[in-house]
Specification:
Elements (H helix, E strand, L loop, with lengths): L7 H8 L3 E6 L3 E5 L11 H13 L6 E10 L9 E10 L3 E10 L2 E12 L23 H5 L5 H9 L2 E5 L15 E8 L7 H12 L5 H6 L10 E11 L9 E11 L2 E10 L4 E12 L5
Antiparallel strand pairs: 1-2, 2-4, 3-6, 3-9, 4-5, 5-6, 7-8, 8-10, 9-12, 10-11, 11-12
Subunit structure: Homotetramer.
Keywords: Hydrolase, Lipid metabolism
Organism: Microcella pacifica
Length: about 290
């Protein structure tokens, strides 16, 4: 797809529908479309979710993804489909490991390793969800904040994304207000009900996890996405799925940046259900370049 999205959720489902090419060498080969973005570069969360689904397609259905580690190697082109090759590295008694490479024009744009596990019993504990967080229904959506702004990026954030994103604090879309802190929380939910496919929900959660994870870096330095000359790009992304949750129900994404140096910033995140169950943990390092800052 190369046009501006008309139905973001339908576009999401189309992007997460893989085509098995039937090619078999030492790897499994799949293809998937690219979605439109105003920057005309493939959204990192999209190619990551597609890579996750590609790996899922090669694992027994009773074995679920619990972690992935990926590197973004090159910008993706929205005018081209993406080819995914999956190497079945290992299948053990309880765990399976897969390596997925995403290609355009024969060059890799993402390299990822994912691990899968049987549903086994074991010790259990989790970090607590923050208390006194406003309900998502009480907060403005991106459409409320940006919908009247006549700019392609603003309209895309307001109406073109398949997820409703609601910042607990004032968002940093245009500028950062309030205290310059290196943490924030964002409620998120898919705009429409999704099919009852657990792997689809896990992949969609990976998709959404890339939206705002680097924003605590901007907030710490009083910057917004519209800062003139700002350049940001995801470098790598790690994710751990702890418990299953639907992405078409409200989830709280609690984020923090412990460090920024050398034109890079690191952010971590925890994703909770509305009733406080820890669903996933996330870490990402990104390139962050600001004019005038060496």
């Amino acid at each position: 797809m190369t046009d501006a999205p008309r139905d973001p959720v339908a576009d999401l489902l189309a992007a997460l529908t893989l085509t098995d090419t039937g090619a078999r060498t030492s790897e499994d080969i799949f293809t998937a479309p690219s979605l439109w973005t105003p920057q005309r570069r493939v959204f990192g969360g999209q190619v990551m979710a597609q890579a996750v689904l590609s790996a899922m397609r090669t694992v027994e259905p009773d074995r679920f993804i619990h972690s992935m580690h990926g590197y973004f190697l090159r910008p993706g082109d929205i005018d081209q489909p993406i080819t995914f090759s999956v190497d079945r590295i290992h299948d053990g008694r309880s765990f399976s490991t897969r390596r997925t490479q995403a290609y355009q024009d024969g060059r890799p744009i993402l390299s990822m390793i994912a691990s899968f596990q049987d549903d086994d019993p074991g010790l259990e504990h989790q970090a607590a969800m923050p208390i006194d967080v406003p309900a998502p229904e009480s907060l403005p959506s991106a459409a409320d904040i940006l919908g009247a702004i006549d700019h392609p990026a603003a309209q895309y954030w307001a109406k073109g994304r398949p997820f409703d994103m609601r910042h607990v604090d004032t968002p940093v879309y245009l500028h950062a207000s309030g205290d310059q802190v290196a943490h924030q929380a964002v409620w998120l939910k898919c705009l429409e009900r999704l099919p009852d496919d657990e792997n689809l929900h896990r992949a969609a959660l990976a998709y959404a996890s890339d939206y705002s994870i680097l924003e605590p870096i901007l907030r710490r330095h009083g910057l917004g996405w519209s800062t003139p000359g700002l350049k940001m790009a995801s470098l790598d992304h790690a994710m751990w799925w702890h418990r299953f949750a639907r992405v078409d129900e409200w989830l709280l994404y609690v984020q923090e940046s412990p460090n920024a140096i050398g034109g890079r910033g690191l952010s971590t995140g925890r994703i909770f259900t509305h009733d406080g169950m820890l669903v996933a943990s996330v870490a990402q390092e990104g390139m962050v370049r600001v004019p005038g800052v060496q």
